[in-house]
Amino acid sequence: MINGNITEFLDKLYYGEELFFEYQGIDYFLQGWNKDGEAVMVLDILNQAPFKEYMWECSKASMKECAEEFLNSNIWDGKNFMQIQRDVTWKE
Fold it and tell me: Residues 38-44: contacts with CB within 8 Å, 24+ apart?
């Protein structure tokens, strides 16, 4: 991970904190919250206007389950976050 520590990033991810990062010139925003007893996590492209829909969305029993689904989802040309993280710039 460029400009950050992957372990610290993952800690924040598992708590659903707001995370901003850039990959291949695209800025992303990842966040989680609790709604009606469920954990919700979404990934959005920041420079996409007007907003159409989330790039990725998950609802599970816990934020940990959402985070694990995010990490295992092949969102970027068949690759998951851990496969691309070396080329990701964390924007705190």
Answer: 39/63, 39/65, 39/66, 40/66, 41/16, 41/66, 41/67, 41/69, 41/70, 43/70, 43/75
